[in-house]
Amino acid sequence: MNNTHALTTLQYLAMVHQVSYTKVCKDLGVTPQQFSDWVKKRRPVPEERLSLLADYFKIAPHLLIGGNHYLRELTTELKLDIQLLVLEQQLEAAEDGADQDGYREKLAHLRRERAQAQQVDRFTALLELGEPSVGKLCAAFLDQVETGNTAQLEKLLLQKEEEA
Predict the structure, then answer these.
(1) 24-35 as b/e: b if 16+ CB within 10 A
(2) According to the model, what pLDDT value does residue 98 have?
(3) Phi, psi of 40, rounded to the nearest 5 degrees
(4) Residue of 94, 85, 109 whose CA lies nearest to 9
(5) Which of 4, 22, 74, 145 is the least buried, fewest Cβ under 10 Å from its Cβ?
(6) Are 59 and 72 in contact (CB under 8 A)?
(7) Taking the model in full, what pTM does it have?
(8) Nearest to residue 114, comparing CAs of 141, 136, 84?
(9) How many CB atoms lie within 10 A of CB 17?
(10) Under the GO molecular function aspect, what terms does this record hold (predicted)?
(11) What end-to-end distance do the CA atoms of the chain give, in Å?
(12) Per residue in 143-161, pLDDT tens?
């Protein structure tokens, strides 16, 4: 049996902040067993502990848990959201100068990366519908873009922009 678990947002936050699970437990008054149960999704995170965790890592509670109060698995989108939040916090804390420029460049890069990830997720969701016509449309779109045959697509884009 495979006992590996996907990384949770809580585990990723600890990595990003370079803090051990033991330290998180000690700082928040949580037992290592409780922490392990949350990470392995044997138990939901209680509301009062959720608030402590969110405050500790300076993030919104919804980034930690899903609707059932179990920790969320780390997705590409969540990973980028967390990276953006941490970088924004670092930018706020940075003194004027080169550090801020570096943080701003990295933020711009992460925002582009997140937009691309959202587009990939949208294509994936469409393809997972299993509709043959949708798959053919996606393939036709990609073929047109890859061959540089985008005149018709650009007309559609222009029409959409005019409607907005």
Answers:
(1) bbeeeebeeebb
(2) 63
(3) -85, 5
(4) 85
(5) 4
(6) no
(7) 0.71
(8) 84
(9) 13
(10) DNA binding
(11) 53
(12) 888 998 888 888 888 888 8
